[in-house]
Write a structure and sequence with these properties.
four-stranded antiparallel β-sheet; alpha+beta; about 140 residues
Length: about 140
């Protein structure tokens, strides 16, 4: 049974399968990489271009690891149920300024990415996940 969830999740919806770039786009948008360093080249670009945001994101982005220890996840797109979305997990709620910054970074990433996609960012959404339980039987 799932008993713990991250406090906030920012979902970046795209038009391409997110498994080809989820770590790279997260590194480009936040400077964060998982323990295997995938996307490290994009994290270095981020840190050089946006040193003021490095500490901010270190303080709020959480390492909610996927099965490879990376702070991202492939997420189902709202429409169509395809795995075309990327989830970035947060301990604290990002500010509107931080969300707009990530949005702009995601748009830049889609136009310059050397990886397979995305060619288009469809939107971003910040959610607060909840554990929901339906009682199906009781005695």
């Amino acid at each position: 049974m799932l008993t713990e969830l991250p406090n906030f999740i920012l979902i970046i919806d795209t038009n391409s399968y997110a498994g080809n770039f989820e770590r790279q786009i997260t590194a480009f948008c936040t400077g964060m990489v998982g323990e295997y360093g995938i996307g490290d080249d994009y994290a270095k670009m981020f840190k050089e271009a946006h040193p003021d945001y490095v500490e901010e994101f270190l303080d709020i982005v959480t390492q909610w690891p996927d099965d490879h220890g990376c702070p991202t996840a492939i997420w189902r797109t709202k429409k169509g149920g395809k795995y075309n979305s990327v989830a970035i997990f947060f301990d604290k709620k990002p500010s509107k300024k931080q969300l707009e910054f990530i949005k702009n970074q995601a748009l830049k990433f889609s136009s310059m990415s050397k990886y397979k996609g995305p060619s288009k960012i469809l939107g971003l959404r910040l959610i607060k996940p909840k554990i929901h339980e339906d009682v199906l039987w009781t005695s």
